[in-house]
Amino acid sequence: MILVFNNDASEKDIQFAISKIESLGYKPHLSRGVIKTIIGVTGDDRSISEIEFNQLPGVEEVLRVLKPYKLASRDFHPEDTHVSVNNTEIGSGSFTVISGPCSVESEEQIEKSASLLHQYGFKFIRGGAFKPRSSPYSFQGLGENGLKILKKGAQKYGLAVVTEVLSAHDVDMVGEYTDVFQVGARNMQNFALLKALGTAHKPVLLKRGMMAKIEELLLSGEYIMKGGNSRIILCERGIRTFETATRNTLDIGAVPVIKRWSHLPIIIDPSHSMGDWHYVPAVSLAALAAGADGIILEIHPDPIQAKSDGKQSLNFDNFKILINRLKTLAGAMNITIQ
Ligand code: PEP
Ligand code: MN
Questions:
Q1: Where along the chain do its domains lie?
Q2: Distance from Cα 209 to the centre of ligand 1, integer Å
Q3: In terms of pTM, does the model score above 0.70?
Q4: For the chain: N or C, fewer Cβ within 10 A?
């Protein structure tokens, strides 16, 4: 349910409505937009009735939200959400490049990657220390030691860390090293993890499951938001279809759909979508053109030697070429790359 206030509604009217909502046992979510002030109401959907709110002073309209997700919906929060990480805002109109290796492998690898990203003025480094591999025999990551290496390299160059957390049990430990928790595609519906991240005090990069609908991605975001953490960055990383020419099928159309349905920022992962570095530049440019808020990109100083996902990782020369092309396109769109 949403209460839309008329333009003359006073602060007293708004506070009165908030108390009324709380007295009925529901939760108010106030959103003060440039044009309208609204209050979203959450609680047991079946028992909330419009009649309770229609007559409240200052209320222009009471709307029922039919979508199963509420807090993540644009109806509840018409303005775009900006997720701030170490003074860099994701979702505020700039195109954010989060980049780094698939896995943290060594100090040297992170040093080289962090130095390159810093040289280009980027603000984030990604790297997995706990890897969700399809095979138990594949490299599983360096664990906590990998997080130490990543944090050290990031701090040296003033970069924010984005790294994956695999289980609810690890949230506190990973939180000591990371600035953004990444939830991988395989964990999009790990509800215990989502709930744990709901009470964490750091942003979450939530990847779409390879067999998940957009609505399910938003419902997973809703789990985190319900716990009180609304700093979520959604990520489209390709879904599984009958096509085998690419690792996954990038659903570029998810960008405008999510922009319409939700206020949360949405970024694209060209690397896991395509699975082959040759295709990564084209879809990175497509992400920018489609209105995504950024990309998360795998790079490696020597992709052939990479312990995971080398095939889809750009080497530094190709990374530089891509960034220059992105800058040209961004210039034409009047968007800054950060
Ligand atoms: C990753 O980012 O390295 C990763 C494992 O991604 P995904 O969860 O999208 O497969
Ligand atoms: Mn990877």
A1: 2-63, 83-332
A2: 10
A3: yes
A4: C
